[in-house]
What does this fold into?
Amino acid sequence: MKTVCFYFQVHQPLRLKKYRFFNMGKDHYYLDDISNRTIMQKVAQRCYLPMNTLLLQLIRENKGAFKVSFSISGLAVEQFREYAPEVLESFRALAATGCVEFLAETYSHSLASLIDPDEFREQVKAHAAMVKKEFGQNPTTFRNTELIYSDQIGEMVAQMGFKAMLAEGAKHILGWKSPNFVYANDIDQRLRLLLRNYKLSDDIAFRFSDRGWNEWPLTVDKYVGWLTNEDMPGDVINLFMDYETFGEHQAAETGIFDFMRYLPKAALATKKITFATAAETAANHQPISVLSCPHPMSWADEERDVTAWLGNELQNEAFNKLYSQKEKVHALNDPGFNYVWNFMQCSDHFYYMATKWFSDGDVHSYFNPYDSSYEAFINYMNVLSDFIIELDKGMAQLSASKTEEAVTTKRTVSSKSGATSKAKAKTKTKTDDSKADKPKTKRRQTVSA
Amino acid sequence: MRVLMFGWEFPPHIAGGLGTACYGLTRGLAKNDVQVTFVMPRAYGDEDQRFAKVLNASDVEALYGMDGEDGLLSQMTFIHINSNMVPYISPEEFERCGETIHKESVSQKEGLASRQKGDVWKERYTFSGKYGTNLMEEVARYAMVAAEVAREMEGQFDVIHAHDWLTYYAGIAAKRVSGKPLVVHIHATEFDRSGEHVNQSVYNIERAGMEAADRVIAVSNLTRNIVIERYGIPEEKVVTVHNAVRFGSSSAVETERGVKDKVVTFLGRITYQKGPDYFVEAAAKVLKRLPNVRFVMAGSGDMMNHIVRRVAKLGIADRFHFTGFLKGDDVQKMFSMSDVYIMPSVSEPFGISPLEAMKSNVPVIISKQSGVAEVLDYAVKVDYWDVDAMADAIYALIQYPALGKMFARKGLEEVTGLKWDNAAAKVKAVYESVIR
It folds into this structure.
């Protein structure tokens, strides 16, 4: 009996508008609302809505025997709320079936795990809170942006209380080992690892409609034959892919929806396959071994490393300049700034700046709003430069008000000697509290401003 | 006095400084009672026709068989040139127009083949109007059409004036047909465009043009020296007429400045000739000392990606901005937002853009290797390779406002004195000297 674990990644970045040097210092709205809305609504029509409907139907038909897992980035959820609330509704309907697990990730689909553990933990918490609020689940399984994983990242995730984590079944990490078993993190062995079977995953995600592929056309029978192949070792088959595979990367005309419609029944009929969520898959199988992965790997490109985002000097410069603002953003804790800080961290911005265009050029150019990586870099830096100006202004105001406060506090308290430091501390916490209250109320305003 | 003038571009369709200079000059000549017939490869139909009668060379029917007499075509070798030889268009534009030009040159070859059969017929030439894949062939065809123009216009002009090497064969052909004197105008030489790696065919055309000319006009003494030393043209034949700047309707655009920081601007093509890399290095040095400065590189060109990478590598990308190619009002807007303008050209025959900056009250730093340095006192002059001096100058103009203000005020006075009318009067004097 083999366990098949379907996991779908749902993410849409908040794309930046064309932001010129002339905008700097004057215009603090950075997003391309029209393209964000258009793309969201298009993908909702072609993929999210029809596929969610289909999954709901399959879950009902198979009476709990068919299960899937999702991870939906915070930025995607924000855009659902704004532009396609019916999609959010349909995900909630899936959540209500009890056969769908929602995983935790970084809120803004960021690369924070590669640079800043504190920021990383903050974002994961923010995302888990969002999942709880929207789908009523407390995530116990984690998947990092683009399946980025290393021993250290796994350790961080384990410490946060997650029981399992998804990763790529990368050949250079596995060697002779098979991805079709559950593994454990090398540092903290309580964390179980589910590794993507990239061959069987990509048969659906990339090759399904490729007429040059010698297995085309891929039928349900043929695919179930591969899943149940006796010669294939292992007890789990992890099929991880972008959710946009259905209807977007593989258009409806390719027959991808029909393929998915008949796959569960055909697979279950063999009696050799069960479907499970990620958490169940991890819990039901003993780890066969620890997996050592000292350097970060991902599911992207042939290299399966992080060079798609941090592989050239443009990407490194933008990345470092962004994260050097962290202290200011946290000190100010302004809802408007936090919002920008979030969407600026989204990995897609760095992906657009990639200069390696080999076998995966197609994937890189998909949804890419820029003509060249240089253009992407220049636009991002223009936005970031303006954001930095705004942060610096905020910091100047903050320190001005603090000195003022300090002076007034001193004056009022000076008569009661000894109480000075205490009073100071009090005023400080007070201001922090009032700031922390702002986010929920003010966010809307800053967004639409 | 009537002039038949051959150019390559004319406002509003300009990619470089040549079009601007031609425009200023023809206006100045008109004011000096000189009639100009301006021939250019492609008239788009909307040129400002008040100061020059624009003849569309593409519309002129050329007779086959005429090249047999002066042997222009047979003297030339046709070569394919690559894009970094191309001074005035960006690589993207080159890619785009390359294809159409290629098609045209193919049909042209077919034309040549049919001609060998002794078929005498007329053909309507169509020029691409841009530097193409087989540029030499275009230059030769332009020459043939030019001869035809000169023949049709017989008795309607007294002197021929050709701008830059692309039109020299045209000038020579017109001179042979009409017997009128030829003046060639050097806005840039092959040494300015390509350093020491000159394209021999281009050099040969340039020298042939200068030798065939009755007078050679250079835009600066710097260029005049190159003409004399590198092309072996006798001193007495070469005259310097400095370019000027036009004070026109484009008065200062009032722009609200977004950024409070000081802005140092480079505006021009991002190519080897313009020295953009020295600007980047100087910027990095300044940024180590001054936090409140921003650097802007406005323009596009084949070195742009290289420069972007270098800026990223130096870690100054939050202070060093790119605007892409600017046109129209954006240029004025950029000037009005600038506190310092810099032109670090490795080799600049003249360089009109600092004058435009001065017009907008911006103090300028120019390289000593530019022709414009000869006519300006109120500009900081540095060697293009001396990034320390460049950084010093930027620092001083920003940190000592008295200095910047003085340069801006005196510079405006100075540049106001540089009028195209005066330059045109000198050009007219050159015409008179060859007609007699």
